[in-house]
Design brief:
The protein has a single domain, classed as Ribosomal Protein L15, Chain: K, domain 2. Helices cover 20% and strands 20% of the residues. The protein has three helices and six strands. The protein has a three-stranded parallel sheet with strand order 1-3-5.
């Protein structure tokens, strides 16, 4: 029997799955109060290395000052934490796939 038929086949890889670069709310504490944080600022400080299908903000950690954050997606807990600190989140459209 050929080798490709003897080896078990497992799993499935979805070619259309969106992969987001993850940033946590606690990571935003390094930015100055009142500043605007976008894609380029996140790349400059090294929080995002490669922009895949966008940037998603997750609610892990705490932030103590107001920021304006521009991301592609954000979890509900992240939105609540940023707004509780006096900041706001602006959702921007996702980049086009090639």
């Amino acid at each position: 029997m050929p080798l490709q038929r003897r080896i078990p086949k497992r799993g499935f890889t979805n070619r259309f799955k969106k992969r987001y670069s993850i940033v946590n709310v606690g990571d935003l504490a390094r930015f100055e109060a009142g500043s605007e944080v976008g894609i380029q600022q996140l790349m400059d400080v090294g929080l995002v290395r490669k922009l895949q299908d966008g940037i998603k903000l997750l609610g892990e950690g705490e932030i103590g000052h107001a920021l304006t954050v521009q991301v592609h997606k954000a979890s509900e807990s992240a939105v609540n934490k940023v707004q509780a600190a006096g900041g706001r989140i602006e959702l921007i459209p996702s980049p086009e796939r090639k």
